[in-house]
Amino acid sequence: MDRQFTVTQPNKVWTTDITYIRTKQGWLYLCVMLDLFSRRIVGWQTSHRIDRQLVCDTFNYAMARQGYPTGVMVHSDQGSQYFSRDFRALLLTNDCTQSMSRSLAQYTAHVGIMQ
Length: 115
Fold this sequence. Notes:
With 115 residues, the protein is of the alpha/beta class. The chain has a single domain (13-110), classed as Nucleotidyltransferase, domain 5. The protein contains 4 helices and 5 strands. It has a 5-stranded mixed sheet with strand order 3-2-1-4-5. Strand 1 (13-23) and strand 2 form a beta hairpin.
């Protein structure tokens, strides 16, 4: 995305991330996709496993809810789930593109370590 966060119409840029929730049964992982234009959640899924299936299911749910838009750019961090072959193939099949944030190392390398 080259740090361009202004979006002029819906279903052009979605951002996604995974968080975790502690439950009595153990950890529950929540993956969310958010439309940058409307700032609304367009898809979500939960799982007891943090894996590529979680992000693929979330993407499929978001696509179905939004009427299968084409040309969506999906922006994420560099988590292994988003690098997976299955997720990247799913984006390609749906005429979507992938964007990933820079690694944290790129930012900290320029700042150095404060002692």
